[in-house]
Amino acid sequence: MAGYLLRRIPRMIVVIWGALTVIFLLQRLGGDPVALMLPDTSTPEQQAAVRADLGLDKPILVQYLVFLGHFARLDFGTSYLQQRPVADIVFERLPATLELAGAAVLIATVGGTLLGSFAARMRRRWPDKVVVGGALVGQSVPTFWLGIIAILIFAVTLQWFPSSDRGGLSHLVLPALTLGAFSLANTTRIARASMIESLSAEYTQTANAKGLRTSRVVGVHALKNSGISILTLTAYMFSTLMGGALVTEVVFAWPGVGRLMVDGVLQRDFPVVQGAVFMVALVVVITYMLLDLAYTLLDPRLRRT
């Protein structure tokens, strides 16, 4: 286990470094943050003083090396606008994004697995066609449009759920369903295909020949052997939703890291955006590392490699 982790830590560092480098360059193309920090009546001398204080007057290569040096020491800097440590700001928002992404993954994984298994058992019959058709629609609807429609129907018209902010379970329902809709549809299709393959395998046919109940054949034998496909998709979903939650967080005014990144980009608050990207990248690489570890539990053959 220790050797496995040591082999993957350099890869994790390279991925995080690549993400930070890209966001560093993109932000410098977005404009000068000093223009938003000072009033229109500020003089060029005042602007130059603030730019020098922030280190933005140095050549881009020097700024990049200073930037890497700070992150190597886990020093995320101070927000230009809030004048607070970026680490404090990001860690305040991270639980909200983890909660939202975790709820969306739970909905997509459990719901998609159940629907996909049901559709596989009803293959070529009308329930199967309804599930597959619904999955195709779910993969075609844009997230922002689905969120707006959900607010209009369930928050404004029916008034079943709140339309914004973070609170109890009722606040989580609409954002989680909106964020997880695409993944739910995708999981349903993959679980259905994987389950059909498992149900046609020899070990499943042998279990049926022994007279085992259909629920046991599907739930124990077929589902277990479809586990790697579903687990891979779950890890992929979580990492994708962590990074893609910003649209849902903006639509529902959810106070997470995604909304923090959007606000930071609009305000050109470089340290906040860089700290948020670092945290999302770190969660993603850790998720995939845990996925590799889980593979060995589901498939003992992988322990020899």
Keywords:
78% helix, 13 helices, 0% strand
Helix run count: 13
Output the radius of gyration.
24 Å
Largest sheet: none
Instruction: Supply the helix-strand structural class.
Output: mainly alpha
Record field, number of beta strands = 0
Uncertain parts: none
* β-strand amount: under 5%
- Estimated helix fraction: over 70%
Which assembly state applies to the chains in this document? single chain
Order of helices and strands: HHHHHHHHHHHHH
Give the rounded overall mean pLDDT.
78
First and last CA, distance: 12 Å
- Spatial shape: globular
Structural account:
With 305 residues, the protein is mainly α. Helix content is 78%, strand content 0%. Helix 5 packs antiparallel against helix 6 (126-140), helix 5 packs parallel to helix 13 and helix 9 packs antiparallel against helix 10 (214-225).
List the helices and strands and how they pair.
Blueprint: H1 2-29, H2 34-37, H3 44-54, H4 60-72, H5 86-121, H6 126-140, H7 143-157, H8 169-199, H9 202-209, H10 214-225, H11 227-251, H12 257-267, H13 270-298
